[in-house]
User: What shape does this take?
Amino acid sequence: MEIVLDSVSLNHLLRGSRKVRERFSDSVGTPIDQAINEGCLKLALDSAKGLISEWGTTCGAEIVHVLITKWESQRGLFIIEPLGKLSSAQRKHLSAYGFNDTCDKLILRIAIATEDRIVVSDDSDFWDPNKIANYGNKNAPVARLIREELDITLLNLKALMEQLSLILKQTQKKT
Assistant: This one.
């Protein structure tokens, strides 16, 4: 499964990690590490490292560097080049819903160019910037627009973890 992971979701993944509190050791872990290590999950990035920079701003550059190094060694990261494009009409529709953040648009452009076209976000901007109550609702305005106009599936972190659990169980049954 190829995904684009937003910085809010990465921050949530790290918050649950006991190892993070132990001062950024090389053994920092997240709940998605097993899926990455087993080749079931790959994270898409832009070649200019804009998404990595956003992760560093949100989660801390030092911890992100440790994760990047770890995930690269497990072949869990790949670069998208060229990025997908948003038409002026799509940008206008997104803007009408309050979806204006440059990095959020970068995430969509990365996702457009991936095979699976999946964005994982716990950021309310991807669901409905005007109503936090719509978070996780696949029919929230931005989520619906992203699905219908860009053919991108939007998952929150909980939904990703559920899918990964099923994939890992299927992988283990085959071995």
Q: What stands out?
A: The first helix runs from residue 7 to 15. The first strand starts at residue 2 and ends at 5. The chain has one domain: 2-174.
